[in-house]
Amino acid sequence: MSELPNTVSAIAPLEDTLLQLCKAGGDALRLQVLRVLSRDAYTVQELCHILDSRQSGLSHHLKILLSAGLVTKRREGNSLFYRRTYRASHPQLFALQQQLLSSVDQLELSPGLEARLDQVIDERSARSQAFFAQYAGQFQAQQEQMVAFEVYGQSTAELLANSQPQGGDLAVEVGPGDGAFLPELARRYQRVVAIDNSAAMLDKAKETVSQQGLDNVHCQLDSTDIAPASADCVVANMVLHHVPSPVDIFREVATWLKPGGLLCVTELCRHDQNWAREACGDLWLGFEPDDLSEWAAASGFSDGPGVYLAQLNGFRVQVRQFINTAA
What we know:
By secondary structure, this protein is an alpha/beta fold.
């Protein structure tokens, strides 16, 4: 998640920060924390479970990592999440920090740790799926309290039309909701695949497909038949704040897209309206634009065009495109 302003005190002198950075990398458990945080953001309680560590000890290590600028924290409702940071507090230390994190990523996680990490993600996913299974019929009305499709749909369509004026062979929409954006994709791409992990929500999209006669749209619960490097574009409208691990979306989508293909993301900017968790099943209270850019860059994307839409109800929407830079 995004960085808090006081993660590293003011800006510490270069020598102090260098010493903190070297100290932070000199402990096996801290290296494991950094390795785990390469996957996602986690609370202290989740990290304790994943790493099989006591909270008092782990909190001490997190404090050292925070002081070194290697991790940052963000409050989501009543929970405090930790994540890796990708910027150095001093430009002179950027290469060293990146080399440290790159080396950490080569570390192997034990089978037991991997299993506990997967368990945390599965628990998040189960909570999200349970919400949509129960409230699928009411979700659209709840979502429109935040941002209605009419607010961002046109901007998303216009950006996509400008970037891929000829359409293409295959478009994929992740989390299509009630299918409002599927007609736009169906007009411009030879084949469209709509993917959702909630059968109840996917039924809503299927209703739209049937009612509008979208014969080239197929709705499915998984992505197993999407061939690598086959999609011209992938769309994720108001999806990331519902998924257990947003960064995993970027990683998976990168394997689906052709070189030069587009990932189109419409998402809430960071906000503090905690009621969205109960009313809309949100796991995350929006994201800073830099969050999306960092996850995209780490997955092989470059930033494309984007627009920002301010809403009177206190929400701000970012409509973004990312370009797959794979050769």
